[in-house]
Amino acid sequence: MTEWIYAKLCRNGAPVLGIVLLAIGLVGLTLTLLSLVGFEFGSFDIHLGDSGAGLVSVATPFLTGFGLLSGGLLVFDAASTPVALLSGAVAGIVLGLVAFAVLGYLVGSEEELPSYDLLGSTVRIVEPVAQGRFGTAEVATPLGTRQVTVTSEESFAYNDRAVIVEKIDSREGFYVSSLTFDEATHPEGNDHP
pLDDT by residue (tens digit) across 26-77? Predict the structure, then answer.
């Protein structure tokens, strides 16, 4: 019975280690692709210095390179086990370093964008805000329209207009309130007189 199971797991004589490494590489590839489209797989992450790159962001490309290359070499009998593992480790380290460098560059370039004081800006609600709950609003800036997280003691429906009155210190969000007659006559954005 065990020989039958081993034969099923080891297609073309490939060791089980190769299949396991391919599975690890496919999981790493899947997590890497999901992170590129904005999917978060948990709030756990350890940031590596001031670059803004997290351990998970660097580990998934490493797992992808290590697992796919070493697993592929083992499954297709292209190399011995030590050579396959060493080749996979080198590929994983290279992909991890590339991911670290790219993420560090992206975070650094994001910090170079000018920031604008949004207090007093008129916003359009795009995700309804209930009393004490967070929603989303659009605000015009010199760089274009930007979405911000907002909350209020009032309720706002989709497409309602409001004005930013205060920044929330602990989060990247703002308190908004209803527009008064005087505020409604100002143009949107940061160029209020």
Answer: 888 887 777 666 555 555 554 455 444 566 777 888 888 999 899 888 888 7
| Residue (of 91, 83, 106, 20) closest to 61 by Cα position | 91
Cβ(163)–Cβ(174) below 8 Å: no
Torsion sign, CA atoms 166, 168, 173, 177:
negative
Q: What is the DSSP string of the chain?
A: -HHHHHHHHSGGG--HHHHHHHHHHHHHHHHHHHHHTT----S---B-GGG--BHHHHHHHHHHHHHHHHHHHHHTT-S-HHHHHHHHHHHHHHHHHHHHHHHHHHHHHHHTS-----TT-EEEEEE-B-BT-EEEEEEEETTEEEEEEEEBSS-B-TT-EEEEEEEETTTTEEEEEEPPHHHHTSPSSS---
**What pTM value is reported for the model?**
0.48
Token reading at 4: 């039958």
Classify residue 39 as exposed, middle or buried by CB count within 10 Å of its CB (0-12, 13-18, 19+).
exposed
Question: CB within 8 A of 98, min separation 6: which ones?
Answer: 61
Contact 121, 192 (CB under 8 A): yes
- In one-letter notation, the amino acid at residue 132 is G
Question: pLDDT, tens digit, for every residue of 100-115?
Answer: 888 777 766 655 545 6
